[in-house]
Structures are given as structure tokens and as C-alpha cells.
Amino acid sequence: MTTSFPPGFRWGVATSAFQIEGATTEDGRGPSIWDTFAAVPGTVAGGDTGEPAAEHYHRWPQDLALLTGLGVDAYRFSVSWPRVQPAGRGRVERRGLDFYRRLVEGLREKGIEPFLTLYHWDLPQALEDEGGWRSRDTAHRFADYAALVHAELGDLVDHWTTLNEPYPCAVAGYGEGRHAPGAKEGHGALAAAHHLLLGHGLAVQAMRGQAAPGHRFGVVLNQSPAVPVTESAADKAAAARQDTLLRRQFTDPLFGGRYAPGLTAMFGAASDFSFRHDGDLATIGVPLDYLGVNYYYRLHVADAPPREPDPARRTAADIGVDTTRLPDVPRTGMGWPVEPEGLTEALVALHNGYPDLPPVYVTENGCVYPDRSDFADYERISFLSDHLAAVRDALNAGVDLRGYFAWSLLDNFEWAHGYKHRFGLVHVDYTTQRRTPRASYRWYRDFVAAQR
């Protein structure tokens, strides 16, 4: 493993704004859909909210020191849209932009490459009140926001990611109701998925039109290959439906120049697809400089009857698939199957399926296990080691991989799970905000050092 990765391969860790920053009402920040969602009783485990998170907004120098100690040469983070543009349009909050400038200046001083993500799920609530991602206008507001941040930080940031994981934004947020904004819709979720992609394309066009030489633009997608639980035709068809919903709904328009075959047949009763306009595919499919892949687990699926008998009333997640039947394999503390080969499978499938695929980074990969008092998280070390071997296998299979980012630097607000689950290489005591590196932090530090 010490000599398996090519020269120039980037090593990093990742975080996101809402999950670590805290300070949700400070310095002019506006409310996001996650602030609103978390305030509703029963939506987030333990009644947790974005406060205090890891107080990164005030403790970022301490976290920068942790990055330096880790020895990584890249850091993936996100900008909070409502922190820099509280209403999602119009007025700009200079204090928010100044915070991100201080952060990226600090990264540059330490020789750490910033990988900036513009949207990691925290839509300004003011835009949700106007329809959110169901509305085509939100795609245009996102492009304006992207151009604004790019103009402000483009002298310090070369790597620009538009969206993190549009699938959960659209399907979990607007279809299943388990993520913000908590909607359970058919047409609305499909429109949200389309407008997220449209916003991505418009944002890349806007930024590229003002970019300096060397700026690179990409998007991040979660990839969970669907595996049929039996060899029956019905279960194989269920796996194909799941793959269309989670993966091809996004990869085909981005890299294949088409809408995913079978999508309209799956949702004909739920949507007339009138949100698709002439020219949208060309905008969505704007050439990219990289693709980020987030991988945590495979989905083992079986055919099942839709939960809602009336097709016109089904949500976008109700596609006649049962994903609850897990194989007899090790699982993380969240119950997710540990199958590193799924990462290789996902990367090779993208490589083989899209001839014009840009270079790829693994932008999130991590796990949760119960903590020991001494923070000796040997299960996480094993998880990382096995998945890095899977990355090596994908490289050997010809995938143009350029880097790996572990999730996550810090324990954080884990969305609907609140603070129950901890992904961090560094433990955070949310009462004292003390940071304590786990054994996995030291293991990853030593592993990265061995690649140099």
C-alpha cells in the first residue's frame, strides 16, 4: 500500500458548513432549510440542531492546525449560502465572505489546496419559501451565488465544486421527507433533481466565464451500486430501478448527453416532466474538469409492491424497491454494510459507462463505530485501509483517479441523526469543544506520509 498510488495523488479530508460551523445566527447569517427542519419536533434525533456543531466558525485556526498535523495536501469544505447571501439573492453579507477568505488564506499559508463546495444542502429558507429546488428560478439564483463567491475567492481557490450529492437533496429532501425541507412529493422531487442539475450547469458557465487560468470545476455525486438480493428477473429489475433513481438520473444528463432511460416510465403518473426545457441538457452537460464520488455502502434490493397504490400519489422514492434486506456482512455503527469492493465497482462502472468522464476524486468515504474511552478506533482504521485498497484496485483497472478525501476531519451534526453518530478522525466534545485525535487520525497521518 505504501507505493500503490501515483505521484501527485492528492490526500485530504472533508467537512461541510452546516455540519461543523455552528454560529447559525451570528454575523448576519440567514436561516437555511436545515435550521427550519431541525426546529420541527421529531425530525432530528435528540431534537438536535446546527448548534453548537463543532463551532468551526470560531475555532477554525485550531482545526487548521489539525489539518496541518494530519499532513494532508487538500481540504474539501463548503460555503454556507445563507452565511454569504442571507436571502439567497440580493444583499451580500461581507462578514460571511470574510470568514471564508480567512479560512482559505490560512490553508494557502499551510500549503493545503482548498477544494471549495458551493452547495452542501443548506438552501436559504427564503428561497424555499418561494418553491426551493422545485422552482426553476432557484437554479438561476444558485448561478448568481456561485459567480459571487467565485469572484470573491477566485484569487485563492482553484477547485470549485457546484453541488454535493444532488440525490439526497432531491429524493430524501423533497421525496422521502427525512431530510430538509421535509417534503414527500413525486413531481416536486423530480423537478428538484432537474433544477439542481440545471443550477450546476448554469453555475459552471457563470464561473468559467470569469475564471482565471487553472481554475477547475466539478460536481460531487454519491454512488451506491444497487445489488439484487436474488437472481430473479423481478429483483434484477428492482435493482435497475434503484440504479436509475440514485445514479443514472444524474450521471446520464451530466456525462451521457441524455436523460436516464426508464425514468419517465417509472414516474409517468407522478410527473409530466414539463420542467425540462429545450437546451437544458446542453447546459447540464457542460464539460467538467473533475467528478467527485462519495461512497459509503452498496444497496441490496428486492422487488416489492409500491407503498402507495395510487400512482398519482406516490412519492419519488416509492419505486417498488425494498432496500432493507442487508447481506450477512460486517456493518458499521449505523448498520451500513461494509463492502469495499462496492467502491471499486462504482468507480469502474463510471469509467466504463461514460467515455467522456473527467478525472475522478473520491471525495467522501468514512464510517461510524462506537467510541472507546481511549479513542482507539481500530474498526475505522480497518475500514479506511480496506477502502483505500479498493481505490488502488480501481486505479489498476484504469480509472483516472486523482485523490482521496476521508470523511470526516471532525465529529459533526450528522443531519437527521443529529449528534448521535460520529464520523470524525478527531473526536469533538460538544460541551467543551475539546478536540481529541483518534487513533485513525494518526494512522491516516502515517499512511499519507508514506505516500510521499
UniProtKB/TrEMBL annotation:
InterPro entries: GH, GH_1_N_CS, Glyco_hydro_1, Glyco_hydro_1_beta-glucosidase
Gene Ontology MF: a single term: beta-glucosidase activity
Keywords associated with the record: Carbohydrate metabolism, Cellulose degradation, Glycosidase, Hydrolase, Polysaccharide degradation
Root EC class: hydrolase
Substrates-to-products reaction catalysed: Hydrolysis of terminal, non-reducing beta-D-glucosyl residues with release of beta-D-glucose
Enzyme Commission number, as recorded: 3.2.1.21
Family that this chain belongs to: Belongs to the glycosyl hydrolase 1 family.
Protein name (record): Beta-glucosidase
Record organism: Amycolatopsis heterodermiae
